[in-house]
Amino acid sequence: YLKYQKSILITGPTGTGKTWLSCALGEQACRQQYSVRYWRVGRLLAHLHQCQLDGTYLKQLKQLEKIELLLLDDLGLESMSPMQATMLLEVMEDRYDKSSSILLISQLSVKKWYGLIENHTTADALLDRLIHPSYRLELKGESLRKEQGVASTGKID
């Protein structure tokens, strides 16, 4: 996927291993000498907003553009404001058709992503650049964090 600048969209319920899998893919990319950066979407958007305020926004966008694999975790934990959606669109636009890939993780199915973005024009542009050149992995099952064989009382079954 990296060689062909494809992205991967990983979706599924909480605890099914989405972040673990994406970090494993990121580590493998590092071992193959690709540049990799991990961001939780909310923190990235807060960081970009701060960059707008301190005048380093365009510099930060250029840095994000150069990263060969950008891991974006937790898309959809909350709706995006129009400004946040525009910032994310700028990140995607700068990376589109370049030597880069995105690995995006969300608890929401891809069908529900459109509803996260208030401005439908921005939603169309953002999702068009993200969804079409991507592989999709939908994880299913129970949370891997559930303790095996230990009841809530702490006694072994």
- CATH hierarchy: architecture: 3-Layer(aba) Sandwich
By secondary-structure content and strand pairing, the structural class works out as alpha/beta
Largest sheet: 5 strands, parallel
Low-pLDDT stretches are none
Question: What is the typical, i.e. mean, pLDDT?
Answer: 90
Helix content: 40-55%
User: Strand sequence of the main sheet, in spatial order?
Assistant: 2-3-4-1-5
Descriptive overview:
The chain is of the alpha/beta class and 157 residues long. Helices cover 41% and strands 18% of the residues. The chain has 5 helices and 5 strands. It has a 5-stranded parallel sheet. The N and C termini lie far apart (44 Å).
Overview features:
5 strands, 157 residues, Rossmann fold, alpha/beta, 5-stranded parallel β-sheet
Task: Present the secondary structure layout.
Elements (H helix, E strand, L loop, with lengths): L6 E5 L6 H14 L4 E5 H14 L2 H10 L2 E7 L6 H14 L5 E6 L13 H12 L2 E5 L19
Parallel strand pairs: 1-4, 1-5, 2-3, 3-4
Helix pairs in contact: 2-3, 3-4, 4-5
